[in-house]
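Researcher: I've been going back and forth with a colleague about how GRIP domain-containing protein might be arranged in three dimensions. Neither of us has a model we trust, so I'd like an independent prediction. The organism is Aegilops tauschii subsp. strangulata, in case that matters for your notes. Sequence below.
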Amino acid sequence: MLKAELRNMERSQKREGVDMTYLKNVILKLLETGEVGALLPVVAMLLQFSPDELNKCQHGVLSNVASLPATALSDGGSTPNSFFGRFTF
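Model: Here is an independent structure prediction for GRIP domain-containing protein. You can compare it with whatever you and your colleague have in mind.
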């Protein structure tokens, strides 16, 4: 339990040095393109996700992409890596 708390503190300290402009641009690109598969690891590294948090995100993305209707993938506005196709902004 002490090791886990130490790792959480280390991740928290690493987050303090993140270039917020770079993070903003990565998030914008993620939302614009839906390239979750390519950009999730970048976001996870910048925000210092724990291995469990990254696994949860990857599992959530995969299950959401698998549940997309075929029309959301063939309309040209969504990519197979995107779960944003089911949302309207």
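Researcher: What would you highlight for our discussion?
Model: I'd start with this: Helices lie at 2-15, 20-33, 36-46, 51-66, 70-74. After that, consider the following. Residues 1-57 form one domain.
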